[in-house]
Amino acid sequence: MKALFSRVIALCLVGSAVMSSVTIAANDEINTNDPYEMIKQVANKTFDRFKQDRALIDSDLSHLKVIVNEELMPYVDYKYAAYKVMGQYLRDTTPDQRDRFVEAFEGYLVATYAQALTEYTNQAVEFDPATDFKNEKIVEVNVQIIEKGRPPIKVQFKARRLKDNTWKAFDLVAEGVSLLASKQSEISNLIRQQGIEAVISMLNDKTKQKIDRQPEKEAAAA
C-alpha cells in the first residue's frame, strides 16, 4: 500500500497536465475559492515546474523538495492533517509539542512527496466533473490515473473549507484507502509506545533523509 500511495502522489502531482488544456503561468494565482480548480491548477503548476527545473532535478534530487515546498505545500492543510494524525494524543501534548509536531510533520510530508516525484514517468490523469460545493465543508475531488497496461487507479483528493471560505487539501484516498487514516494509525501507535518527543525526532530524521531514485526493478514491482 505504501508503494501505491507513492505512485499515486507522483502521478497526481505531475500527471494532470497530460489530460488538461489549462496552462497555468508561473505568476498566475491559484483559485483557492474553488477546490476542484485549485487541485487541477496546483497539479499543473507542479508539472510545469517539474519540466522547467528538470536539469536541476537531474543534478540534485533534493531540488524536488524545493518544488514541493513552493508549488504544493501552500495548498495543503498540514496543520489540520497533523492534528488528525495525533488523534487522541493531541490533548495530552503541550502547545510547544504541538507546534514542533506540526513542523516535523510538514517536513515529513515534503520529503514524502519529493521522494514520490522520482517515480513519475508521464502517465495521464483524468479529473471527474466538479459538483456544486457552495454548502459543503468537505469536498472530494475524484480522479482516475490512466497508465497503459494497467487498470485505472481511482483516487480522491479531500479538501476542506477554511474560515475565510478558501480551500486546502488535507487527504488523499487511493483505491478506498486514506493516506491520512493510515498515517494516523501508524503515528498514534508510535506516540503511545514511545511518546511524542520520540515521534517528533523520528519525523525530523525522515525529513533529512536523502532523496533517491527508486531502482527500475523496484519501481516496476511497486
TrEMBL record:
Electron transport among keywords: no
Protein name per its UniProtKB record: Toluene tolerance protein
Signal peptide range in chain numbering: 1-25
Entry keyword annotation includes Signal: yes
Keyword field: Signal
Highest taxon of the lineage: Bacteria
Classification via InterPro entries: MlaC/ttg2D, Tgt2/MlaC_sf
Organism from which the protein derives: Shewanella inventionis
